[in-house]
Amino acid sequence: MVRIGVNPARDQKSEYRPAPVTVACVVHIPALVGYHTHRLDILKLCLASILQHTPRPFDLMVLDNGSCAEVGEYLKALHAQGLIKFLISVDENIGKMGAFQILFRAAPGEIIAYSDDDVFHYPGWLEGHLEILNTYPNVGLVSGFPALAGIDHRVTSTLAFAQESPEVFEEEGNLVPEAWQREFALSTGRDPEAWVARSQEVRQKRLTYRGVKAYVTAAHYQFVTRKEIILEALPEEWTGKLMREMWLIDETIDRLGYLRLSTA
Questions:
Q1: For 255, how many CA atoms within 13 A lie in the half-sphere containing its CB?
Q2: Which of 87, 151, 154, 200 could be 79's S-S partner, Cβ–Cβ 3.0 to 4.6 Å?
Q3: What is the pLDDT of residue 247?
Q4: What is the SS3 assignment for 30-74?
C-alpha cells in the first residue's frame, strides 16, 4: 500500500539548533540489587546535579546501555519532560567504549562534556573546565578532579608543553588537598587513611598558564573535550570488551600531542 497525500511536515521548519555544549552520559544499571542496589538514587543525584548546576544553553544526551526496566522508565520520563534532549536506548550492554563510539558521534555540540552516571557536578563545574579548555593550547581532556590513580601516566605531551613554554609556572609536591583525597577514597570504596598516606608519596604537578591553574592529569570517567578531538582518539576497532579499555583514550590523547589536565 502506498501513502496518500502530502507529508504535513514538508514545508515546516524546526526551531531547534544544537547547543555549543553536549553534556553526555552513559548509564548502565542492569539491576537494583547487590553492587547496584542504590544506583538509581545515585543516577538521579548525578543527573539532577547536571540539570541544576550547568549553565544554559546545553543539550543533555544520555545513552542507556542495557539498564533494567526501572532505570529505563526513569530516563524515558526525563526525556518526556524535555530534560533529556536525546535518549539513546540499547537493549544490551555493548561496553563502555562501544557506548562512546555511538554517543560521541551522535553528539551535536562542538564541545562534549562527558560523565559516568555516578558523578556529582558542583556549581561552576562547566565554567572551570571551559576556562582551561579555552586558555591552554592543544587541550585534549579536562577533568574536574585530579585523581591520584594514574596521575603520572600518559602526560608526556602535557609535561613537554610545561617545559617548553616560558609562560608556564610549574609546581610539584603534595598539592591535592587532603580533604579531596579522603572524599575520593570514601566514594570509591578505599580506606581513606591508607589513601591519604599513599598520596603523600606521590608527587603531583600543577601548572599556571596565563593565570589559569590546572593539575597535570585527567580522568576518563568525567571530562570535557572538543568533539573533533575525542573522535580522533576513539579506537578504530570494536572489541566488544565491556570495560578496561578506557586507558586507550588517555594513551591516544597523549600520543597525538594533546594535553590532559584537571581543574584546580
A1: 9
A2: 87
A3: 76
A4: CCCCHHHCCHHHHHHHHHHHHHHHCCCCCEEEEEEECCCHHHHHH
| 213-256 confidence digits (pLDDT tens) | 999 999 888 999 999 999 999 987 766 665 566 778 889 999 99
Mean pLDDT of the 78-87 span: 98
**Cα–Cα distances in angstroms (integers) from residue 213 to residues 74, 129, 155, 209, in the given order:** 38, 11, 16, 7
Phi, psi dihedrals of residue 46, rounded to the nearest 5°:
-60, -55
Q: Are 252 and 154 in contact (CB under 8 A)?
A: no
Residue 262, C-alpha cell as written in the block? 584537571
Report CA dihedral (28, 34, 38, 43) to the nearest 10 degrees. Answer: -10
Q: Cell triple for residue 222?
A: 568525567
Q: Mean pLDDT over residues 142-170, rounded?
A: 90
C-alpha angle 242/219/94, rounded to 5°?
15
State the Cα–Cα distance between residues 253 and 229, nearest whole angstrom.
8
Query: From CA 173, how far away is CA 171, in angstroms rounded?
Result: 7
- State how far the Cα of 64 lies from the Cα of 26, in Å rounded to an integer: 6
Cell 609556572 found at: 169
Angle between helices 247-255 and 156-164 (to 10 degrees): 30
